[in-house]
Design goal:
369 residues, flat, Glutaredoxin, alpha/beta, 3-stranded antiparallel beta sheet
């Protein structure tokens, strides 16, 4: 009896964590796909680069489905080993992040719940142990509902998780946890946080002695240091990692000629519109609406700027709007939907809308003075 109670508590903990993990990433499937790209680049798996979004959509649905199935106890002999495979894989990823240092964080809970590599690894190890308890005690876990009801619950879950992801891919995430969210001031986000501590470095020297390389800092020269030490190199060695990194560290807008116009754009004392375009593969879906919006904005003397990393293609397609160049990674972070409209006042983001909401953009324009 006690064991059944313990297993019930464990399956609720495991199930809810997987549901939360899947839903928080389903809120921003592109974010997870970008994180997958980091892993594939680190491992040299470039042949998988074009499939990261599909992997992301599939993984998020699997996490939510598995979480629901474990809670209701349906097909436990299938879903417990399935969860065991998932958590083993996740534990491997978090261990790689923690011990390799090649990737900053694994993104297990997306950008909304940032966890350090260490905390994420500990969390996954704890989950692994809990899932092992479920795996070895499946005979003690009964289904809460009949197969028909269980299948209905899982079908509804699958449909909802899938629809959520396709919706946010067109209309932006429900919960924006990035520094470019509505209401934020970009210039403020580019400042180092108050009370932040900078990285601390030590000057380290590298010498050769008796065909062996030795390293020491300026305060710990060997007692027998003499001309037999052959100088090789010197470098700065990080001894304490600080947190003096602004939320937005690399935002820059440049003209076609390469002139930095960031301050000019963000210090305007009037309202204006930025359109962030990651690429022009779907231009036919939004170009007509954008051209009409530019005409409406010009009638109210509201400037419109097209921001992209592919300036050549932008020049080819658009003749009636100023084009500014921006780093592709910045655009990926700022605009999860391709393209995304920013309604701006100074450096403050008044509104942020996906291209499918062009009518809402026009409504915003009509409200602006």
């Amino acid at each position: 009896m006690i064991m059944k109670t313990v297993l019930t508590i464990i399956k609720w903990i495991v199930g809810l964590l997987f549901i939360f993990s899947g839903l928080i990433k389903a809120n921003d499937p592109l974010g997870l796909s970008y994180k997958m790209l980091e892993f594939f680049e680190a491992w040299g798996f470039h042949f998988l680069d074009n499939y990261t979004l599909a992997f992301s959509l599939f993984m998020n649905v699997c996490e939510v489905l598995a979480g629901i199935a474990i809670i209701i106890g349906w097909q436990i002999k299938f879903f417990s080993p399935f969860l065991l495979v998932l958590i083993t894989f996740f534990t491997f990823l978090t261990a790689y992040v923690l011990f390799s240092g090649k990737i900053k964080e694994c993104g297990c809970f997306g950008d909304c719940v940032p966890l350090s590599a260490k905390n994420t690894f500990v969390k996954d190890v704890a989950l692994l142990l809990l899932i092992l308890l479920i795996f070895f005690n499946t005979q003690k876990i009964a289904s809460l509902f009949s197969s028909k009801i269980s299948l209905s619950i899982l079908f509804i879950t699958f449909t909802a998780a899938t629809c959520i992801q396709f919706y946010v891919l067109e209309y932006l995430p429900f919960l924006d946890c990035l520094p470019y969210k509505k209401g934020n001031n970009i210039l403020n986000e580019m400042k180092v946080p108050a009370g932040a501590v900078s990285d601390s470095f030590s000057i380290t020297f590298k010498y050769k002695k008796n065909n062996q390389i030795v390293e020491f800092d300026k305060d710990h020269f060997p007692n027998n240091f003499d001309s037999t030490y052959e100088y090789v190199d010197r470098f700065d060695k990080l001894i304490r990692k600080g947190n003096a990194t602004p939320a937005i560290a690399d935002f820059s807008l440049r003209t076609i000629d390469g002139v930095d116009t960031t301050n000019f754009i963000l210090h305007q004392d009037k309202k204006y519109i930025l359109l962030f375009v990651r690429d022009f593969s779907n231009a036919k879906d939004w170009k007509k609406g954008f051209d009409a919006m530019v005409i409406s904005a010009s009638k109210k003397n509201i400037p419109v700027y097209l921001i992209t990393s592919d300036a050549d293609k932008a020049i080819e397609l658009f003749k009636n709007v100023p084009i500014l160049k921006c780093d592709a990674t910045v655009i990926k972070t700022a605009a999860r939907v391709n393209p995304t409209y920013f309604v701006m006042e100074g450096a403050t983001i008044l509104d942020k809308l996906g291209f499918a909401e062009i009518r809402s953009v026009n409504v915003d324009i009509n409200k602006l003075k």
